Amino acid sequence: MLLCACDEGKGSDPTASASEEAKAEETKTSETKTSETKTGETKTGETKTGETKTDAVQAKLDAASEQIRKATGFTKDDYSDKKACETATPRMVSGLFGVPEGELKQMRMMGCIYSWKNADRSEMFEARFGSIRVHETEDAAKTWFGNATKGMSAEEVAEVMGKAKAKMKEDGNLDTKPKEQAAEHIGGALTDLAGKEGFQYDELSGPGDEAALGRSDGIIWIRKGNMTFNVSAYKGVPQPPPTITVGADPKKMIAMATEAQKKFIAETLEQRKADATKLANAILETM
After folding, report:
1. pLDDT digits (tens, 9 = 90+) for 33-90
2. Which of 49, 37, 38 is nearest to 147 (CA)?
3. Cβ–Cβ < 8 Å for 214, 283
4. What values do phi and psi take at 207, rounded to 5?
5. Phi and psi torsions of 37, nearest 5°
6. On the CB side of 187, how many CA atoms lie within 13 Å of its CA?
7. What backbone phi and psi angles, to 5 degrees, belong to 110?
8. Residue 55 CA: distances (Å) to CA of 144, 170, 171, 197, 231
């Protein structure tokens, strides 16, 4: 399956002649630099295969910037979110996982998100379908997918988040204190979630042409032709509520909550893998 991206005579005066020649030389130099810049540009991780580590960091940087922007309300792609929810409809999700359609909660942010809990809260369901990214060519999609699913150490994750924040500040997106605090909070949360192990991925035989499972979050990243997207899903027992100690240090409480979440994801990873695969296959059938 291959889709097209929808997004871009001299005078006799010796002094004048020398001046024009100098200008022409400057123009040639400028054109050369512009050409070099275009050749070296990184477009969402779509770079030459040889630039492995730099490409991986850039792909994560782009993803982190997008996540911070959308989660803090800097930008909102209504069309992408709408399209995601039109593809992964409540009826589809309800039929796949046996959840009452009328009880599903839907949220359109960075794609389409669903959540549900039964009456006594002994069972829960959550799912997310990220907006589809359409690349210019299949090779470009392969490169982007490889970079996005390349494992990163904790140090590299911290570096990426720092660069993402700096880039957003440079672009003028962090123009108020609340926005800067929100970006700082999200960046810190992602860094904490990565933990000492960083972000690691397991290669899968499907769905799609290429797929990889994120071990820290249970998200499956997928490439089909010249398209890439990600999905996550889980139906089962909810995470045990955290132990709250009155007067405890808030930072320690957040760290404990993060560790508890990581532990719960690790314990339910196989179920998350099965549920996300089921959802991904259903989405691919609509394409």
Report:
1. 444 444 444 333 333 444 455 566 656 656 665 554 444 443 334 335 558 899 999 9
2. 49
3. no
4. -75, 170
5. -65, -45
6. 25
7. 55, 40
8. 8, 21, 21, 20, 23
